[in-house]
Write a structure and sequence with these properties.
Elements: E1 34-38, E2 45-46, E3 56-58, E4 61-62, H1 86-90, E5 91-95, H2 98-107, E6 116-118, H3 129-132, H4 134-145, E7 149-153, H5 162-169, E8 174-179, H6 185-191, H7 198-210, E9 215-222, H8 231-241, E10 245-250, H9 257-268, H10 273-283, H11 302-317, E11 321-322, H12 342-348
Parallel strand pairs: 1-5, 3-6, 6-7, 7-8, 8-9, 9-10, 10-11
Antiparallel strand pairs: 2-3, 4-5
Length: 351
């Protein structure tokens, strides 16, 4: 185990031409984070999955220093010829020209304004954002264009951009989903080692709500026997903090994530590991993962059905609307280059 990292192993990615067998799969010495600047050719990714409530997304970074062991984005590091293990947490790339490329895409004659989601793959407010400020620059552009945006994050750094988010919220142009997995500090430290604490995320919800930004809580992932008992507590705490919506996702283990997660389980919770995996398999038709649309986010079977029922009742009890993204306006959009509101321009002078 490496302090402050989600995994201590670094398996070869599935596209690597040679698969090496090592005496020990673990890396013993700490790994420093590196973030390699790259020039993106495009920024807006289109989504056709019926399981997610958005059609356009932007990811300013590849890889994520939060180190969440369960992260479904880990397998995407194979496209960079890197490992989904410790490489995913330590060998990051940042798209330094993101705002410029996005400006070109928003200016295209055929562009149709639909809400854009930031944080669909890796967190836009992971620690390296403090240095590179790519997410903030993207938000500045979207504000100037009056383009709707939804943010998904577990990073308290989002409160740095309250000035932009408040200005957008007054026009119905933004919403934020705070991912909250557990309020147990010991579990958080191993499960999501470099992410904000549960208490910090609740404070973030309160800060956003206070300035009028619509906030939802994303209780994800739900891990049987590790954090599923917290459902009602998390929904209640989020509602008390100012959240108006809630959603949940049952743990998904696509690709290489399955082996990494099982390895983590046996290292940190050896007495529960087999039980956790047994319940997950019951929810996934006997497998560790179920890729079918309509099932992969919620699962099937008695445990999944009980979880869904508990979630519905909790939302009703604490007056939260099921679903993590609010309806946003698209009719105010002004392509880059057209005159923008003078007050917006003046506000940017104080950044």
């Amino acid at each position: 185990m490496i302090k402050g990292r989600g995994t201590a192993s670094n398996p070869d990615n599935r596209y690597h031409p040679l698969q090496l067998e090592r005496e020990s799969p673990y890396i013993e010495k700490p790994s420093q984070t590196e973030c390699r600047p790259v020039h993106a050719r495009s920024m807006i990714a289109r989504n056709q999955s019926p399981d997610v409530p958005f059609t356009q997304s932007i990811n300013p970074y590849q890889g994520c220093e939060h180190g969440c062991i369960y992260c479904y984005a880990r397998p995407t590091h194979a496209y960079l010829d890197l490992s989904p293990g410790i490489d995913f947490e330590t060998r990051l790339t940042c798209k330094t020209n993101a705002p410029e490329v996005l400006r070109q895409e928003l200016s295209a004659p055929g562009y149709r304004c639909l809400p854009i989601t930031l944080g669909a793959n890796t967190d836009p407010y992971q620690p390296v954002e403090r240095r590179y400020r790519i997410t903030r620059r993207i938000l500045e552009l979207l504000l100037a264009c009056k383009h709707p945006v939804s943010l998904i994050t577990k990073g308290s750094l989002v409160t740095r951009d309250l000035d932009i988010l408040e200005a957008m919220a007054t026009q119905g142009l933004c919403s934020v989903a705070i991912s909250l997995t557990t309020l147990q500090d010991d579990l958080k430290r191993t499960l999501e080692p470099r992410a904000s604490s549960g208490a910090s995320r609740l404070a973030t919800i309160a800060s956003l709500s206070k300035v009028g930004v619509p906030v939802s809580v994303l209780y994800a992932p739900v891990i049987p026997t590790l954090n599923d008992a917290e459902l009602e507590e998390i929904v209640s705490a989020a509602a008390d903090s100012g959240a108006t919506r809630a959603a949940y996702i049952l743990l998904r283990l696509p690709g290489e994530v399955a082996d990494l997660f099982e390895e983590w389980l046996h290292l940190h919770y050896p007495m529960k590991a087999n039980h956790v995996m047994s319940i997950l398999r019951q929810c996934r038709q006997g497998e560790r993962s179920d890729t079918r649309f309509g099932h992969r986010m919620r699962g099937t079977g008695p445990f999944a059905e009980l979880l869904a029922q508990r979630f519905r009742l909790a939302c009703k009890r604490y007056a939260l609307v099921p679903g993590d993204i609010d309806e946003l306006r698209t009719d105010l959009f002004q392509p880059p280059g057209e005159p923008t509101n003078l007050a917006v321009d003046q506000m940017r002078l104080f950044d």
